[in-house]
Amino acid sequence: MSLQRFISEAISPWMKESGSESEIVLSSRIRLARNLKQFKFPLLASTEESHAIVKHVEQALQEKENEKIGPVELLLMDELRVNEKRVLVEKHLISPNLAEQSKCGAVLLSEDESVSIMLNEEDHLRIQCLFPGFQLLKGLETASSIDDWLEGQLTYAFDETHGYLTSCPTNVGTGLRASVMMHLPALAMTQQLNRILPAINQLGLVVRGIYGEGSEALGNLFQVSNQLTLGKSEKDIVEDLRGVVLQLIHQEKSARQYLMENSKLQLEDRVYRSYGILSNSRIIESKEATQRLSDVRLGIDLGLIEGISGNILNELMILTQPGFLQQFAGDVLNADQRDERRAALIRERLLLEEKTDN
């Protein structure tokens, strides 16, 4: 398979679109946790009960198609290869927890992969909507519409006082997790993040790495999300997050302007060194690749590098992960082989971009 075809088929269709503030906010996500009243929560359910949950949800959804998301495809975790599940994690379509779940885990995916509904993860249902750029309000509207539609077919575990009941107490109430994936290289370079991140935590928000809880913030990519779900409405939670994200966008833009005005030569040197390394390396580890890609994306956004799409960071951050490298190779690769393949894929992708520009 050619790289161009592989990219076309590997990248989720929603990722190819653009959204507001996309030079800093790569994506927006809304996730709702829900459980079914008549079944034990996943942590306590038997294998037979877990199978029954998947069948119950599948049957309910087959009876009436949702016009917002269209047809959905059911993928059963125990029918997927290890690497296929890894690819789904790398595309943020399922959680690492669901990928490791051997007991009747499943996911329902829309055709453009902007909607995924995980079954039998920590809760019976995890409804997730993904949008490019800064589109939290659109995400909330879409997720709420899907939630209402599902509630018309299913009976949720709900308490008049506490709201939606969930396996983890931190999700009780609205069951809502709103998050944005942000690229904050200038704040990292100017060493302002050490001051900003603790302040964000004090506001009831949390900052994590690219794959959520417990993951490392690679390539200056940070996931900012709400921590509290009880005591506030869905709209209030999203508005609070939006306010903080707008401040982060403003501060990142200010930091970028400062670097351009006060350290432009050093910034150009850093950007072009990274571009040169990515264009010529024969071996490159994942951590270095993500940092170099972050530098190049910053150079593109600031107009220091021309003729290359800003989406290259979004694409290569996914395509150079272990699962995708092995999917592209069609074989199991050890760490050294992955480093070699990663370097080759990046070189070829940059060359492809240059040919397109010419």
UniProtKB/TrEMBL annotation:
Record's keyword terms, sorted: Allosteric enzyme, ATP-binding, Kinase, Nucleotide-binding, Transferase
Regulation: Appears to be allosterically activated by the binding of pArg-containing polypeptides to the pArg-binding pocket localized in the C-terminal domain of McsB.
Kinase keyword on record: yes
GO molecular function, one term: protein arginine kinase activity
EC number from the UniProt entry: 2.7.14.1
Binding positions (ATP): 27-31, 92, 126, 177-181, 208-213
Matches recorded under Pfam families: ATP-gua_Ptrans
Family matches, as InterPro entries: Arg_Kinase, ATP-guanido_PTrfase, ATP-guanido_PTrfase_AS, ATP-guanido_PTrfase_cat, Gln_synth/guanido_kin_cat_dom
Example of a GO cellular component annotation carried by this entry: extracellular space
Domain of life: Bacteria
EC category name: transferase
GO biological process, one term: phosphocreatine biosynthetic process
Motif (RDXXRA motif of the pArg binding pocket involved in allosteric regulation): 338-343
PROSITE patterns hit by this protein: PHOSPHAGEN_KINASE, PHOSPHAGEN_KINASE_C
Catalysed reaction, written as an equation: L-arginyl-[protein] + ATP = N(omega)-phospho-L-arginyl-[protein] + ADP + H(+)
Residues of the Phosphagen kinase C-terminal domain: 24-255
Annotated NCBIfam families: PRK01059.1-4 (NF002194), PRK01059.1-5 (NF002195)
Task of the protein: Catalyzes the specific phosphorylation of arginine residues in a large number of proteins. Is part of the bacterial stress response system. Protein arginine phosphorylation has a physiologically important role and is involved in the regulation of many critical cellular processes, such as protein homeostasis, motility, competence, and stringent and stress responses, by regulating gene expression and protein activity.
UniProt similarity note: Belongs to the ATP:guanido phosphotransferase family.
Protein name in the entry: Protein-arginine kinase
Species in which this protein is naturally found: Alkalihalobacillus alcalophilus ATCC 27647 = CGMCC 1.3604
